[in-house]
Amino acid sequence: MQHHTSYAASKPDDPAIILSNSGDIITWRDYDLKVSRIAQYFKDIGLKERDHIAVLLDNCETYLEILEAAVDAGLLLTTISTHLQLEEIEYVIDNSDSSVLITSDAFAELAEKLLGCTPKVTHRLMLGTAINGYDSFEETVAGYDGSPIAYGNAGTFMLYSSGTTGRPKGIHWDVPPVQVGTVDPNLVTAFALFQIDEKTTYLSTQPLYHSAPAAFALGCLQMGATVVLMEKFDPENAISAIEKYKTSHSQWVPTMFVRIMKLPEETRLKYDVSAMQCAIHAAAPCPVEVKEQMIEWMGPVLFEFWGGTETGVVTLITSQEWLEHRGSVGRGFTAALHILDEAGNEQPPGEPGIIYMESGRQYSYFKEPDKTASSRNKDGWTDIGDIGYLDEEGYLYLTDRKSFMIISGGVNIYPQETEDAMVMHPKVMDVAVIGVPNEDFGEEVKAVVQPVNFTEAGPELEKELIEYTRTKVSHIKCPKTIDFMEELPRTPSGKLLKRLIKEKYL
Question: Could you tell me if 405 and 412 are in contact, meaning their C-beta atoms sit under 8 angstroms apart?
Answer without folding.
Answer: yes
